[in-house]
Amino acid sequence: MTGVHRVAQELANALAQLAGDQFEVWLPHDGTGRAATLHLPNKVIGPLRGIPWEQLTLPVVAGDRIVLNLCNIGPMLSRRAVTMIHDAQVHTAPASYSVGFRLWYKLVQPILARRHRRILTVSEYSRGQLIAAGLGSRDTISVVHNGADHVLAVAAQPEILPRLALPPRSYVVALAATQAHKNIRVLLEAFADPRLADLQLVLIGGADPAEFGRAVGSPPANVVFAGRVSDGELRALYEHALCLAFPSTTEGFGLPPLEAMRVGCPAVVAPCGALPEVCGDAALYAEPHSPPAWQAAILELAGDPAAWKRRSEAGRAHAAQFTWRRAAEQVLSVLALERGQTVTAAARPAA
Question: Which pLDDT band, with edges at 50, 70 and 90, does 341 fall under?
């Protein structure tokens, strides 16, 4: 599950709790399996599938209903639509995406920004980036911060620690991401230094070592590839880690640091993109292209248990402010405004 898919799932399920009788998930005939995690009624509409379904079937069948799109893209033919564009990274970090992906987003998103009733995004930083890319204005883009409390919804599966031979607090968690803006290379350089020889860097995600090495660089001996992990395994890795390291040079939001902090894992992040907005004073910051800065931040946590505890408690308290219920309430308020309703604490969009 990507971060964008996570947001769609958790936001849909929070909307189900607040106003589930007023929403349906519409899907093509090959999408029923993927809708099983959503706590909303779903309806197969046809014909077609994939992009043709999204761009042709969906807007025609929707008619005058408002279509809520949560994954960066939506039907260009629709006018009664609200679409969440998470970031402007196809513009600000084009090297992280394939040519076809970039061309498609650069074709579709400006049309959505002009035709759809409102654009949602996930941070003030992203709103500024979308405005700079010509994808709306402050009056047409609303900010809905992500939640992080989904990490508490599953029990931890600590059996992953002995399977990977990871004693508690002996490792740092990071993403096995090969996109340029994820900047994992700086962590490889930091962990190649003898000062971090007693710690392991655990990379989670689908990239295998050979693919990762070709894209990012040869990993040092103290790097562990955990592969894809379940939500319960991810929670256990966070709970027993020394910290999460997140050196991205741009992020529309940055969900992993909040997930980690929500279960007491300190986060070391780069002061880039939306990360300062999202993490506030609860995270440690390290310059994105300085391996010594990452070493210093990690060693500070490793060498001072009292400092680790302070960061753990501060992170947990900070991340608790970000809930999916709050995000869903903000979306409901936007939809109510788009329907011309007066927004109150109990306002809900009309059926």
Answer: low
How far is 163 from 325, CA to CA, in rounded Å? Answer: 35
CA distance 311 to 282: 7
pLDDT tier for residue 214 given thresholds of 50, 70 and 90: confident
First-to-last CA distance in the chain? 31
Supply angle C-alpha 300, 270, 227, rounded to 5: 85
C-alpha 147/C-alpha 11 separation (Å) is 8
What's the burial of 235, exposed, middle or buried (CB within 10 Å: 0-12/13-18/19+)? buried
Taken in order of first residue, the domains within the chain and their CATH numbers are 3-147+323-338 (3.40.50.2000), 151-319 (3.40.50.2000)
pLDDT band at residue 34 using 50, 70 and 90 as cut-offs: confident
Interatomic CA distance for residues 176 and 169, integer angstroms: 20
pLDDT of residue 342: 42
Beta carbons within 10 angstroms of residue 278's beta carbon: 29
Q: pLDDT tier at 1 (50, 70, 90 boundaries)? A: confident
pTM: 0.91
Q: How far apart are CA 233 and CA 204, in angstroms?
A: 10
List pLDDT tens digits, range 265-313: 999 999 999 999 999 999 999 999 999 999 999 999 999 999 999 999 9
Residue reference for tokens 């310059």: 287
